[in-house]
Amino acid sequence: MANIPKNTRVGKHAVIEEGVKIGENVIIGHNTVILKGTQIGNNVEIGSNCVLGIQPGSNKRMRKISQNYNQLIIKNNTKIGNIVSIYLGTLISENVFIGDHASIRENVSVEEGTVIGRAAIVELNSRIGKNCTIQTLVYITGDTIIEDNVFIGPCVSMSNDKYMGAREYTLIGPYIKQEAKIGNNASLLPGITIGKRTIVGSGAVVTKDIGDDEVFAGVPARRMKS
Amino acid sequence: MANIPKNTRVGKHAVIEEGVKIGENVIIGHNTVILKGTQIGNNVEIGSNCVLGIQPGSNKRMRKISQNYNQLIIKNNTKIGNIVSIYLGTLISENVFIGDHASIRENVSVEEGTVIGRAAIVELNSRIGKNCTIQTLVYITGDTIIEDNVFIGPCVSMSNDKYMGAREYTLIGPYIKQEAKIGNNASLLPGITIGKRTIVGSGAVVTKDIGDDEVFAGVPARRMKS
Amino acid sequence: MANIPKNTRVGKHAVIEEGVKIGENVIIGHNTVILKGTQIGNNVEIGSNCVLGIQPGSNKRMRKISQNYNQLIIKNNTKIGNIVSIYLGTLISENVFIGDHASIRENVSVEEGTVIGRAAIVELNSRIGKNCTIQTLVYITGDTIIEDNVFIGPCVSMSNDKYMGAREYTLIGPYIKQEAKIGNNASLLPGITIGKRTIVGSGAVVTKDIGDDEVFAGVPARRMKS
Question: Is the peptide bond before B220 cis (omega within 30 degrees of 0)?
């Protein structure tokens, strides 16, 4: 077991592997698993039945793991819900909130004050800025960049593979600029850029780049009359 | 540990906090966590690795928790799957079925005989009537009202925030009247009403109120020729 | 407890019920629950907090369980992530990869080399061929057939109930032929066929059969000009 500070509250049957670092005033739920390499700051709350510090794996048809990751860093004052999974190689900054059933993969950074919704999934190699709202069941594909103060509505879907596995291709997710707002259940295609303060309507399918300060909706997404 | 009736079957490593109430002939799976304030009726079955009776939390960018909730009530003959999370402040009525990986937040009521699908998510302050079918991966946003005998197809998405976090706004989800049927992966906008027995097609985006006995489809949803 | 070979690595607080069979060089994570009837091949890796070998259940408004299932078979060299649930009556073949938070129901077969994405859900009575890629948060409805080498993008939704619970109806999911590719967040209606090598665009709603070698997109999906 790890060296656990006296003011940590650890739930029953929690498993904390050797080498885990835990700050002051941390609360860890029941049955939660914290694997080696995880570093937890001060005043962090973690729910029950989570798995933190997962080592990436793959099979022969998936992309190779490019490197070994050996740290998951969770900074001060962050709250993590129940039944959450987070990988090694990832940084969860201060004052972040991660909802129940969410999953965050390796080589991801989530910056200060951002909310990751319930059952949202963040794939590998993605960056999420400060004070973003990523709502419930959002799918953030691999290799995505989200700047600060972005709002992504529930069930938004993204992809990063233009050829859907048919060709060799450098995977690239969407690039969403600051203060953009994406309506619920919209679909974003690989590599598209969404400009600053731009609004994308619910259920829209964004197939090409959109500039700053636009309002787009529909399938495929088109500029709305103003 | 709680006072557990003799005819309760409790799985290994289950955690049942002090003050939990459990009826007759209850089955609780392995590694399931039942937190204080949870009240379980008779003949209830609960799977493994669940977390029940969660206290709501938030960060500074989320809406304030309006009150303390101290009870989760699960009534007789209800079945709860595996890896499910349910909050305090919620009522799950009799003969309800809740699928694996589902999550239900605080101040929700799910009435008699309703099925909540696998990995479906029900946000706070929502009411779901009797004998509804809420299918897999449905997202029921906060402040939603669903009357009796409603069918919501898989992956339907809802939102409750017209301004996507940009303005102060009273959050309001959809209002879905009795016997309405919503096709899979449809998107419902904040505050819209869907009339009695109305059918919404798969993938439709419902942007305004629809009356009773209508059939709507498309993006945005329009009346279908009859 | 089951008879566990000496070279098996079993995590802390894992629950392995009597009658579970485990091959050589198996790794089982912490807090994972393996219920009776589960048979695990050689070199299988299973993450933490999973529930494997679940007995199907239902309530009075769901379809009856047609038979008793008593085996979940997981073949050699397969990897299963964390927080995964899989039912009895199902066959997971060799070299399969199943992502975290995924859920697979009874009477399903997943053939060799297929990847089932994170939080993807596979309902009952479905067949998934060899070397398929089923991406994150895909919903595979009951009674679906997917041939070999199919690519299904993230968040694709399917349904199998034309009348949405209103009438007696033989449930039938989509039939997706070999090498077809389905874009992210597309919706597939009950019983439709998608031909060999056919491509369906992101966010499309497929309402009728599509032949081989086609490219379809839009709501409803139409042939794209070539």
Answer: yes
Q: What is the CATH number of the domain that holds B218?
A: 2.160.10.10
Residue C119 is given by DSSP the state: T
The reply to whether A222 and A179 lie within a common domain is: yes
| C162 and C87 in a common domain | no
* Residue located via tokens 């485990």: C22
Q: Please indicate, yes or no, if residue B113 is contained in any of the structural domains.
A: yes
Q: Tell me: do C148 and C181 sit in the same domain.
A: yes
Indicate the pTM of the whole model: 0.96
Other beta carbons less than 10 A from residue A1's beta carbon:
11
**ipTM for this prediction:** 0.95
- pLDDT tens profile A117-129: 999 999 999 999 9
Task: Return the residue in C48, C51, C90 with the most chain B beta carbons within 10 A, the one to mutate for interface testing.
Answer: C51
Instruction: List the beta strands (DSSP E) in A75-159.
Output: 79-80, 85-87, 90-92, 97-98, 103-104, 109-110, 115-116, 121-122, 127-128, 133-134, 139-140, 145-146, 151-152, 157-158
Q: Test C159 with B137 for CB contact under 8 angstroms.
A: no
Task: Work out how many domains chain C is built from and give that number.
Answer: 2
* Residues of the domain holding C20: 1-54+67-115
Answer yes or no: do B91 and B145 share one domain.
Answer: no
**Interchain contact, A202 vs B189, CB within 8 Å:** yes
- Tokens 């494997």 belong to C52
Same domain for C142 and C195, yes or no, is yes
The residues that bridge with A42 in the sheet, in sequence order, are: none
A16 shares its domain with A109? yes
Choose from A13, A31, A33 for mutation: most chain C CBs within 10 A. A33
d(CA A53, CA A74): 10
pLDDT tens-digit map of B4-35: 888 999 999 999 999 999 999 999 999 999 99
Query: Which chains are within 8 Å of A by 3+ CB pairs?
Result: B, C
Q: What is the tens place of the pLDDT at every residue in C43-89? A: 999 999 999 999 998 777 677 666 789 999 999 999 999 999 999 99
